[in-house]
Amino acid sequence: MVVDDHPMWRDGVARDLAEAGYEVVAAVGEGAQALRVAAAVRPEIVVLDLQLPDLSGVEVARGLAAADPPPRVLVLSASGEQDDVLEAVKAGAAGYLLKSASKEDFLEAVRRTAEGDAVFTPGLAGLVLGEYRRLAAQPAPAQGPSLTERETEVLRLVAKGLSYKQIAERLVLSHRTVQNHVQNTLNKLQLHNRVELVRYAIEQGLDES
Amino acid sequence: MVTAVEGSFWRTVAVFRAASLAYALVVFLRAGGYADPAVGWLVLGVMALWTVATVFAYSIEEFRGRPLLAADMLVTVGCLLATPAVQGGYQEDSLPITATWMGGAVLAWGVYGGRRAGAVAAAIVSLADLWTRGAGGMEFEKLPINGTVLLFLAGVLVGHVARLARKAEARMQEAIELEAAGRERERLARGIHDSVLQVLALVQRRGQEVGGEAAELGRLAGEQEAALRELVSLRPGTPAEGSADLRVLLQRYGSGSVTVSVPGTPLTLPAAVAAELAAAVGAALDNVARHCGERAPAWVFAESDDGIVTVTVRDEGPGIPEGRLEQAAATGRLGMAQSIRGRVEDLGGTVTVVSAPGRGTEIEMSVPQPC
C-alpha cells in the first residue's frame, strides 16, 4: 500500500513496486483514508510519506502500528523532516528512506522491510543515536533505554555511511550480528516509546476509561 | 492613522462633558440661580449647545484638530469668565458656573496632544478660574488651588495615557502584520513543499534512472530541491541570539553525493564556533571533491555527547598513504587536513584523521559545547 498526497509520486512509487513484482493493494493520498483502507485491505507493507494533508504521517504510523497484525511501515520522506521521521520510527515504522533515493535503493529498502529488517540509512542512525543521547542526558532517573558500547559503535558507523558489510569487516563481526545490533537499537526505542505512552496514559487516568 | 482606542477616548470625553453639564445644572439650581439667574441660564445654554457641538465634532476624525481645540478652549474660558457676572462677587467655596465642565477642554487637549498639551490647557483654564476668583475679590493667599491641581493632574494623566494607548495599539498593529506575514510565508512554504519540491525530487529520481544527460538534470533538480527546502524550511524556534544550530549549517552541504546525518535535537554552539566548524567541514568536503572526484560520495555525521560536538567527514576515496601528512608538515607545506586542524584547534577542539590506502578517509572534528 502506498500513502502519498502527491499523485505523481504515488503513481510512480506504485508503478515501481508493481514492476518489481509487488502487488499494490491500495494507493491513497490522505492519512485518515489510509487508516480506513489499511484496516480493510490489510497490507503487509505500507510505504508512507510523512507530509499528508489531514493527519500527520506520525499519527498514521501510530495508527498503523495499532493494527493486528501491524503492517511494516517504510517511511519515505523528503529531507529536513528529522523530528517527524524520529517520531514515526519510534511509533513503529521499520525504516526511513529519502525521497531522493534511487529506484534501486528504494526497491532494496522495500525488500528488506518485507523481510522484517530495519532500513537504517545514515540519516536515521544519526537520529536514533541522538535520541538515545537525549534520553541519557535527561535529569530524570535513568529508566530510559541505553545502548551498549557495541551498539553505539555500530550506529556511529552506520551514520558515517558505512554499509553493514563494511562495518562487519571493520569490527570483525558477521553481517547478521551487525544487522541484529542495528535492529536492537530500534526495538529498544520503540519499546521505550510504548512504555512511555502507557505510563502517560496511567498518569492521566486514561486506563480507567 | 486612526486607532480604535483613540475613538473610545473621545467618546469618554463626550460622556464627561454631558455628565459635567448635568452637574453644573444641579449646582446652579441648588444655589438658587445665584445672583443673576438670567445670565446664568444664558451661560448654561451656551454650555449645552457647545456640549452637543463638541460631542458631534470630536466624533468625526476630520474635525479633530487645532481649530476645534482652540474654539473649545475659547468657549470654555468664555463661560468660565462669565462666572462673576452670574454669581455676583465672591462666594465662599463655590464652584464657578461651569463647575467641572471646564475640564472637558483640558481632557480634549490631552487626548489630542498628549501630556504637554494637557498641561498647557490645564494652565489656561486654571488661570481663567483663578482670575474669576480674583475678580470676585478674594485675597491672593486664599485662592483655592484644589481645582488647579486637579485640572493639571487630569490633563497630564489623560494625555499620557492616550499617548501610551496609541503607541500600544500601533505596536499591536505591527505585531498583527508580522504574524500575517509569517502565516503567509508558512502557507507558501506548505504550497511549495506539496508541489515544487515533490516534482524536483521526482525529476531527480527519474533522472537517475534514465541516466546520461537526464541524470545530470536530475542531480541539478536534487540540488535545487535541497536549496529550496532550506529556504522555506518551517523549522520553528530560532536559537538564542549569538548562538547557532550546527545542524542547519551542515544540512546545506547535503546533495546527491553528500549525505548529512544529524540528531533530532539542535546542536547549539556559539554562532562563530558553529560557522567556523561548518567552514572546516566545507573545506574537508572540498578536499574530498578534489582528491576523489566531483561526485564521490561523502558522509557528514554530527553528534553531541557529554558536552562535545563531533562532526565526522568520511569518504571512500583512495585514502591518505601513511606518513603523508607528517611528510607534508615536515616540508613546511600545510596540507588541507592541517589547515582544518588549525581551524578546529583554534576553537579549542581536536581533529583526528583516520585513513588507510583503499579504505577512504575519516576526519573527525570535536569541539566542546558550552553549557
Structure description:
The complex is a heterodimer of chains A (209) and B (371). Chain A has 209 residues and is of the alpha/beta class. Chain A folds into two domains: 2-119, Rossmann fold, CATH 3.40.50.2300; 123-208, Winged helix-like DNA-binding domain superfamily/Winged helix DNA-binding domain (Arc Repressor Mutant, subunit A, Orthogonal Bundle), CATH 1.10.10.10. In chain A, 56% of the residues lie in helices and 9% in strands. Chain A has helices at 7-19, 31-41, 57-65, 82-90, 103-114, 122-137, 149-159, 164-171, 175-203; strands spanning 2-3, 27-28, 45-49, 72-77, 95-98. A five-stranded parallel beta sheet of chain A has the order 2-1-3-4-5, sandwiched between helices. In chain A, strand 4, helix 4 (82-90) and strand 5 form a beta-alpha-beta unit. In chain A, helix 3 runs parallel beside helix 4 (82-90) and helix 8 (164-171) packs across helix 9 (175-203). The two termini of chain A are 33 Å apart. Chain B is of the alpha+beta class. Chain B folds into three domains: 4-174; 195-234; 239-368, Histidine kinase-like ATPase, C-terminal domain (Heat Shock Protein 90, 2-Layer Sandwich). In chain B, 63% of the residues lie in helices and 11% in strands. Chain B contains 13 helices and seven strands. Chain B has helices at residues 4-30, 37-58, 66-81, 83-87, 103-113, 115-135, 146-194, 196-210, 213-232, 246-251, 271-292, 324-330, 336-346; strands at 243-245, 258-261, 268-270, 298-305, 308-315, 350-355, 361-368. In chain B, helix 2 (37-58) runs antiparallel to helix 3. The radius of gyration of chain B is 40 Å and the shape is elongated. At the A-B interface, helix 1, helix 4 and helix 6 of A face helix 8, helix 9, strand 2 and strand 4 of B.
